[in-house]
Amino acid sequence: MSDISLAIWDVPMPVVAGERFTIMAGATAAAGKKIEVCDAGGKLLASGTLGDEPLAGTEALFWTSLDVPSPAAHGVAEYAVRIGGHPASARFSVAAASKPEHTLTVTVVERDSKAALDAVEIRLGPFQARTDKAGRTQLRVAKGEYQLQLWRTAHLAQPAPIRISGDTNVELTMLHVPEEHPDARWVR
Q1: For residues 37 and 80, is the Cβ–Cβ distance under 8 A?
Q2: Which of 36, 64, 121, 180 has its CA 20 to 30 A from that of 92?
């Protein structure tokens, strides 16, 4: 049984294929120890040394940032994090995508009232964002064809096909599903 516990956080989504990304990694009871990131095949990709002071707000989580190479090709890749010379390990994965080169501006309003909808989750392939109080958000995206998906509690919207070939603005609507609606409990 291990007396060291690992944590990984601030993993970006998506990462740009063929570039580098930064994660935060830490371990309890491991001040000054070497921490390593390996690919799914066990090849060492990045390493660092955990700090001597615990992360603020914790009693014993010693941490560092690690600069990790992203996969060369598009897709999902799995990584393992381990403490050198110790059996403790943890895993995380990333989605690698093309480099974002265009800006997609999305505005979302309620279909009937035309009121701006905040906190709408926007998904476009691996790219994601959330609308502000004005019902707007911007995503940096790669060119290509996608299904634009919206999600918000008690609202519905069908996925919309979209082609990105330059900076683009779209205005979308969502239908409010009142609580008395028979499907309301299925619409989170």
Answers
A1: yes
A2: 121
Cβ neighbours for 79, distance < 8 A, ≥ 6 positions apart: 37, 38, 39, 40, 45, 68, 91, 92, 93, 94
Integer-rounded Cα radius of gyration of the chain: 21
Tokens of 86: 């110790």
Candidates 82, 105, 119; CA nearest to 2 is 82
One pLDDT digit (tens) per residue for the chain, 188 residues: 358 899 999 999 999 999 999 999 999 989 999 999 999 999 999 999 999 999 999 999 999 999 999 999 989 999 999 998 788 889 999 999 999 999 999 999 999 999 999 999 999 998 999 999 999 999 999 999 999 999 998 899 999 999 999 999 999 999 998 777 666 566 65
Token pair 């959330």 in the structure block, residue: 130
Q: Which of 97, 125, 150 is where one domain is finished?
A: 97
Backbone angles phi, psi at 98, to 5 degrees: -65, 160
93 and 12 in a common domain:
yes
